[in-house]
């Protein structure tokens, strides 16, 4: 199993090649997609890409944690966090 991580430039290069676009156009398209998903999550909306998965913002409850260096207890406030749930086709492709 590979532990290789792709960066944005590598994704843009593959998208440009696969979609027969310039690298600049592929980067604009990727930025537009990511911006659209981010904006929807900020508004509390979910983005479902059929076959790929669903992006959503989930509420994380407030809790008590510990500083690992001092052992001191500290309060961690509630907040929203981004989450991704893989779709059936993506799960099958990776399995």
Could you characterize what this model shows?
This protein is α+β, with helices and mostly antiparallel strands. It folds into two domains: 1-45, no CATH class; 46-95, Irregular (HU Protein, Chain A), CATH 4.10.520. Helices cover 40% and strands 28% of the residues. It has helices at residues 8-18, 23-42, 88-94, and strands at residues 47-49, 53-60, 63-66, 73-76, 79-86. The strands form two sheets. It has a three-stranded antiparallel sheet. Strands 3-4 form a two-stranded antiparallel sheet. Helix 1 crosses helix 2 (23-42). The N and C termini lie close together (12 Å).
Briefly, what is this?
By secondary structure, the chain is α+β, with helices and mostly antiparallel strands.
Low-pLDDT windows of residues:
none
| Structural domains: how many | 2
Helix content: 40-55%
Largest sheet: 3 strands, antiparallel
Indicate the mean pLDDT. Answer: 95
Structural class estimated from helices and strands: alpha+beta
- The amount of beta strand, in percent, is 25-35%
CATH top level class name of the largest domain:
Few Secondary Structures
Radius of gyration of CA atoms, rounded to a whole number: 18 Å
N- to C-terminal distance: 12 Å
So how many helices? 3
Strand line-up of the largest beta sheet: 1-2-5
CATH architecture of the largest domain: Irregular
CATH topology of the largest domain: HU Protein, Chain A
What's the overall geometry?
elongated
Q: What is the CATH superfamily of the largest domain?
A: IHF-like DNA-binding proteins
């Amino acid at each position: 199993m590979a532990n290789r991580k792709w960066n944005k430039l590598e994704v843009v290069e593959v998208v440009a090649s696969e979609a027969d676009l310039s690298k600049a156009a592929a980067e604009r398209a990727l930025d537009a997609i990511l911006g659209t998903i981010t904006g929807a999550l900020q508004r509390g909306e979910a983005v479902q890409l059929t076959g790929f998965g669903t992006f959503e913002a989930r509420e994380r409850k407030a809790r008590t944690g510990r500083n690992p260096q001092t052992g001191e207890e500290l309060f961690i406030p509630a907040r929203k966090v981004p989450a991704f749930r893989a779709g059936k086709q993506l799960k099958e492709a990776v399995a």
